[in-house]
Design a protein that fits this description.
By secondary structure, the protein is an all-alpha fold. It is built from 7 helices and no strands. The protein folds into 2 domains: 3-92, Hypothetical Protein Yqey, Chain: A, domain1, CATH 1.10.1510; 101-150, Arc Repressor Mutant, subunit A (Orthogonal Bundle), CATH 1.10.10.
Length: 153
């Protein structure tokens, strides 16, 4: 089942169950997906974005909500932070299991070896390979930090 189909099914289930948080979050994700589909048409992609791009979009949505949580907690708004946390839980249900820090580091070592990277100048090549291979499975900021550390940057 593609992510698009999963969103449609989850939307229907949330409507039936009257689960407002899930319903609002899925609608928000679908709206963002449609926006990106329209943007993709300008480049000639009439089918819309693929599952990899959808996963990347979802990860950005999670990162945005984590930033909001930090601001809400700093501002003394725990109810808004809780709402954002609930949205993260819904969004993450569409993403594959996230890799641990050790798994990210092991993947970084493998990609550095595969690319024959020797210095920080090769970081772009390594990160491109990691993004292509592990999109949706790891936090790319953590991956970048691991690659930078391993390449001596």
């Amino acid at each position: 089942m593609s992510l698009r189909e999963k969103f449609t099914e989850t939307l229907k289930d949330a409507m039936k169950a009257k689960d407002t948080v899930r319903l609002e979050t899925v609608r928000m994700a679908i709206a963002e997906m449609k926006k990106r589909d329209i943007e993709a048409r300008t480049t000639g992609n009439m089918d819309g974005i693929g599952d990899g791009e959808i996963q990347s979009m979802l990860q950005k949505m999670v990162a945005s909500r984590r930033d909001s949580i930090a601001l809400y907690e700093k501002g003394g708004r725990p109810e808004l932070a809780a709402k954002e946390q609930a949205e993260i839980a819904v969004i993450e249900s569409f993403l594959p299991k996230q890799m641990s820090a050790d798994e990210v580091e092991a993947a970084a070592k493998a990609e550095i070896a595969a690319a024959g990277a020797a210095s920080i100048r090769d970081m772009g090549k390594v990160m491109g390979a990691m993004k292509a291979k592990y999109t949706g499975q790891m936090d790319m900021a953590a991956a970048s930090a691991a690659v930078k550390k391993l390449l001596g940057g």
